[in-house]
TrEMBL record, chain A:
The protein, known as: 3-methyl-2-oxobutanoate dehydrogenase subunit VorB
Domain Pyruvate flavodoxin/ferredoxin oxidoreductase pyrimidine binding span(s) in chain numbering: 15-188
Start and end residues of each Pyruvate:ferredoxin oxidoreductase core domain: 255-349
Molecular function in Gene Ontology: oxidoreductase activity
CDD domains: TPP_PYR_PFOR_IOR-alpha_like
Coiled coil: none
UniProt xrefs under Pfam families: PFOR_II, POR_N
PANTHER family referenced in this protein's UniProt entry, alphabetically: SUBUNIT OF PYRUVATE:FLAVODOXIN OXIDOREDUCTASE, SUBUNIT OF PYRUVATE:FLAVODOXIN OXIDOREDUCTASE-RELATED
From TrEMBL, chain B:
Domain Thiamine pyrophosphate enzyme TPP-binding residue range list: 69-220
Keyword Oxidoreductase (UniProt): yes
Protein name: Thiamine pyrophosphate-dependent enzyme
One Pfam family linked to the record: TPP_enzyme_C
Example GO molecular function: thiamine pyrophosphate binding
Ranges annotated as spanning the membrane: none
Source species, domain of life: Bacteria
Protein keywords: Oxidoreductase
Protein source organism: Xiashengella succiniciproducens
Single Gene Ontology BP annotation: cellular respiration
Length: 360, 255
């Protein structure tokens, strides 16, 4: 039976987490995502599914709790917003180094610094290029609706466990705070400890006599061994790039001018495409759903029919670099963005395409 | 009269042997370092309590970073100072397991102060082992929060000056003031008697966990003869003369 509700993006994350059998949430409040933990605390999932929810003393502690729980083979998550995610970078590089699956939700606000509590997309570099020290990548999903906020919780865990890699939902204050209709999935039971021991033989579950001890670590003092580990990590990221690209194409078949935008920017660009089409301009939108892996090949394929691309994002120009890297340098690629919590209108975006790409 | 070695090591004559929970890996610690003794005691306690299959340990950053090579249980390696956060999560998602953390003074009382305080304040049902040798051994002997007044280290070459650096931090006394910590004790491992007392404390701590009593916190006042630039024997003497007066041994709290 379909269960449909009107929910905030942040609430949808919490509800979806309980329903898809998440074992634990460790977090620290920060605007504009505090409703994730508030909703969990209100729903008391420890009584229904046994899911653990704890307000930690800091973001640093939260992400390290995620590490501890994830290393036990459990489905563990946290959520935060930009300044909090910066504090979590230490834990994220350790999670990546220890090849642990987990979910981190970033409901982005304007930065740098303490910044604003309004939506932004200026954490793109931090999310897709590593963020912490060392060569590593997160699997990054960018929801553009409250429905996707809910759906991507399970998807993120599936991908995280498939590749033993941390996954991030990169949302923003607009999608976190907006209310929309959501179709909720049925409850799935949490994995039992026996199932975990069987499915994730690497996990620290207590060492039975018949197996070697499991050590979850990211330290290796031998440089050649650690180089080999880095090469192995890169091969994993390559496999993710080959198999897990997700995107949406809107009016792309005959498009001559293309917007590339994700999340809330993509919603605004969708309307801008309509505005331009009414004027007889063949505009289209490619919406990356995965930011790592980035839909580079899909952009490359569209290139022969295109006269130009406008990368639209709530930042001063971050994703545009990946767009440029995806296409031939002969194709015009420009950036349009606003920052600090300011948002563009569909009309502004349409005008920007006309000015920067068609007229520029 | 020659002694037949085989006669001496006949099973019925053995009074002290390697714990079966210890691996065959040679320890990397400097000769005279306290870590080796405490690692061994942990293995003995885990073996004697019969909890080898049900224990998950958390190792620190610093000299004991490779502790997971020595005791044959499941392990997680934490970032600097974060072991109590890992311990919190492990115990909460696997309350059926015994969980302990192992940290040095930089780890537990400097970079990880917040995690230490809040884990004990929440009364997480784990055992925390804290090795306090008053110096950063791994990184080459820099000042620790617990470095004694006037003690010389690489980053206080003229001696710790409380006006500049603050007084040595008695984090264990701070922890004892937290309601979530049920058992807080300060021990050492420099004599046979001290080792016996430390082992008793460790056993009590693990049993407290079984009884769900909250956090058990065991400080071990330790030597770092390399960092202190003393022979192992002199380091023990120096510890007795200088460390014990400021960090007195014994139970601070037992509820």
């Amino acid at each position: 039976m379909k269960e449909i509700r009107l929910m905030k993006g942040n609430e949808a994350i919490a509800e979806a987490a309980i329903r898809c059998g998440v074992d634990a949430y460790f977090g620290y409040p920060i605007t504009p995502q505090s409703e994730v933990m508030e909703t969990l605390m209100d729903l008391r999932p420890w009584e229904s599914t046994g899911m653990e929810v704890l307000q930690a003393e800091s973001e640093v502690a939260s992400i390290n709790m995620v590490y501890g729980g994830a290393a036990c083979g459990k489905k563990v998550m946290t959520s935060s917003s930009s300044p909090g995610i910066s504090l979590m970078q230490e834990g994220l590089t350790y999670l990546a180094g220890a090849e642990l699956p987990c979910l981190v939700v970033n409901v982005v606000r304007g930065g740098p610094g303490l910044g604003t509590i309004q939506p932004a997309q200026s954490d793109y570099f931090q999310a897709v290029k590593g963020g912490g020290h060392g060569d590593y990548k997160l699997i990054v999903l960018a929801p553009a609706s409250v429905q996707e906020m809910a759906d991507f919780v399970e998807l993120a865990f599936d991908l995280a466990f498939k590749y033993r890699n941390p996954a991030m939902i990169l949302s923003d204050g607009m999608i976190g705070q907006m209310m929309e209709k959501v179709e909720l999935k049925a409850f799935k039971p949490r994995w039992t400890n026996d199932e975990i021991a069987q499915m994730h033989p690497w996990a620290t579950t207590g060492k039975p006599k018949n197996r070697k001890r499991n050590i979850i670590t990211s330290v290796e003092l031998d440089p050649l061994k650690f180089e080999a580990f880095n090469i192995k990590l890169q091969a994993k990221y390559k496999a993710i790039e080959e198999a897990e690209v997700r995107y949406e194409k809107i009016m792309c078949d005959d498009a001559e001018y293309l917007f590339v935008a994700y999340g809330s920017s993509a919603r605004i660009c969708r309307k801008a495409v309509e505005i331009l089409r009414e004027k007889g301009i063949k505009a289209g939108l490619l919406r990356p759903i995965t930011l790592f892996p980035f839909p580079s090949n899909q952009l490359k394929e569209l290139q022969p029919q295109l006269k130009g691309i406008l990368a639209v994002e709530l930042s001063m120009g971050q994703m545009v670099e990946d767009v440029r890297l995806s296409v031939d340098s002969k194709l015009k690629v420009e950036h349009f963005g606003r920052a600090g919590g300011a948002i563009f209108s569909p009309e502004e975006v349409a005008e920007a395409l006309e000015a920067k790409i068609i007229g520029g | 009269m020659s002694v037949d070695v085989k006669e001496i090591i006949r099973p019925e004559n053995i009074v002290y042997k390697k714990s079966s929970a210890l691996t065959d890996n040679p320890m990397h610690y400097c000769p005279g370092c306290t870590h080796g003794v405490v690692n061994r005691l942990l293995a003995e306690v885990i073996e004697e309590l019969g909890i080898q299959e049900d224990t998950i340990g958390v190792t620190p950053v610093g000299c004991a970073v490779l502790l997971y090579n020595y005791i044959d249980i499941d392990w997680q390696e934490a970032a600097h100072g974060r072991a109590p956060a890992l311990g919190t999560a492990i115990k909460r998602v696997r309350p059926d397991k015994y969980v302990f953390t192992y940290q040095g003074d930089g780890d537990l009382a400097a970079i990880g102060t917040a995690e230490t305080i809040h884990t004990c304040n929440r009364g997480e049902n784990i055992v925390m082992v804290f090795i306090n040798n008053g110096i950063y051994g791994m990184t080459g002997g820099q000042m620790a929060p617990t470095t004694l007044e006037g003690m010389k280290t690489a980053t206080c070459p003229y001696g710790r000056d409380p006006k500049r650096d603050g007084m040595p931090l008695k984090i264990t006394e701070i922890v004892a003031g937290l309601p979530g910590a049920s058992y807080v004790t300060r021990q050492a491992a420099h004599t046979a008697n001290a080792v016996r007392k430390l082992k008793k404390a460790l056993i009590k701590a693990f049993k407290n966990q079984e009884a769900g009593k909250g956090t058990s916190f065991i400080e071990v006042v330790a030597t770092c003869n390399s960092g202190w630039k003393l022979t192992p024997v002199d380091a023990n003497k120096w510890m007795e003369e200088h460390m014990f007066p400021y960090y007195p041994l014994g139970d601070i709290k037992d509820e």
